[in-house]
Amino acid sequence: MDIFSQIVFVIGRKTNHIINMLGTCFAIKSGKYFVVPRHVIGDSDENLSIILPNIRGINEYQDTTIKSCNLIDVKIVASDPFRDISILESSISITMIEIPLGSTDDIKVMEQSLIIGFPHCTEGRKVLTVQEADVGAKILLESNNIKSKYIVVNTQTRPGQSGSLVYEPKRNKIVAMLIGAFAPDAGISLGGINPRELHQTTHCISAEYIQNMIKEK
Known about the structure:
This protein is mainly β. It has 2 domains: 2-90, Trypsin-like serine proteases (Thrombin, subunit H), CATH 2.40.10; 104-214, Trypsin-like serine proteases (Thrombin, subunit H, Beta Barrel), CATH 2.40.10.10. Helix content is 5%, strand content 41%. It has helices spanning 38-41, 208-214, and strands at 8-15, 18-28, 33-36, 48-51, 71-80, 85-90, 112-117, 129-143, 146-153, 165-168, 173-181, 202-206. The chain has a 6-stranded antiparallel β-barrel with strand order 1-2-3-6-5-4. The protein has a 6-stranded antiparallel barrel with strand order 7-8-9-12-11-10. It is globular, with a radius of gyration of 16 Å. 37% of the residues are buried.
């Protein structure tokens, strides 16, 4: 499990020597490229940075009182607005053990996945968290007449988890990236929360689309 503490990161934007945490991202392709949902960062890479980990393994206690961090600046090199995927490139490569990118084809309904990301990082809490979630459904969603593969996992995600890596342990593959709650817009907000998102369903885009984008790099 220690490998995940070195490939899953918080992404943020620097403002006046402060890093505002935006969500989760993870490293791919020998540690020079990273993937994140487009909605997390938008279309601007100004002052965009990866926060490097201050732990060597997931079993370490994570000190929530640490306020300083080391950063790597990144730039957007590819974006897919229809599937909500952005590819980032850093000026230096991090040391990592690469996990193969697979597809939602590599996991079945009722099989277990691991969701690895940073819930509540947008609220100032940077804690790498591993959650188990069963696959509840496989779906096709359409955007601009383009249909794409997703899985729905049986867990309720929190702000900051968009961009989490979805890992299939039996086949040792990254099968998807977490996008967010699978819910229509309620048209109302309770404390900044869409009440229809308070349920155990989250949708994740197939990692095959990440693979296709990175092949072009």
